[in-house]
Amino acid sequence: MTLEYNSSTVVTYNFAFAGAEVNKSITSKPDVNDIGHQVGSFILYSENPNTNPHWTADDSLVVCFVGINDIRAVYNSPNSGSILDAVFKSYRANIDRLYTVGARNFLLLNIPPIDLSPSYNTNPTSQKIIATTIADFNSRLMTLASGVRRSYADVGAWIFDTHALLSRILSDKSALDLKAAGHTPLVNVSDYCDVYKKAYTERTGAGSGVVEPDLNEPETFDARCKVRMDEYFWFDELHPTWPVHKALTVRIVEELKGLLGS
Known about the structure:
It is built from eight helices and three strands, in the order H-E-H-H-E-H-E-H-H-H-H.
């Protein structure tokens, strides 16, 4: 988004951490930097005279895409509702912290349909439970955004519907969203090829993650996988391949143009 879809200079600061949850004390990952830690890091960075990016409320947008790991941690719990109450209290507290230091524009991405991912799509019971939890989370996120707008008259807080976008692509492998991103139709939207996953892991030394190759390099193909890597929706059990991410980028850019002006 920063490099390919801007007509002017835009600087991106990324404080995200792989595997993060909203609040690690509520859910399950004490060794991962949660949103509170990330917000704290941003505040320290922005207030440091040696690194100060000189951002202002008018020229900055805070983007939050969090919740998948929270959902996975709590969906099987009989107390998932009360746990999510605490999660969203913490989520809102961090939005308030950002407001206090000057942030006024927020884009919040909701949770995609991970119930349709290979992690869950072969187990109807788990799939149904996590789909219900996703719907609950996404409804709460809408309430959070509207609550922020009510509390602060000078704030823009918008939801990007990641769930709807990825659902469209999963249901229609030749979705217009892919065409808008300059990509050909997908072939496989239900599982992944372990050969591609292992090849990426060996090449990068990374664990499970999203393949985002140079878009100018030839499409990766291994006959054992039957189709090219970029014709799969899923890279691994949970993460989409880069064409899905590019479609997401294109639609976010379009929505931001509508909200903020081109």
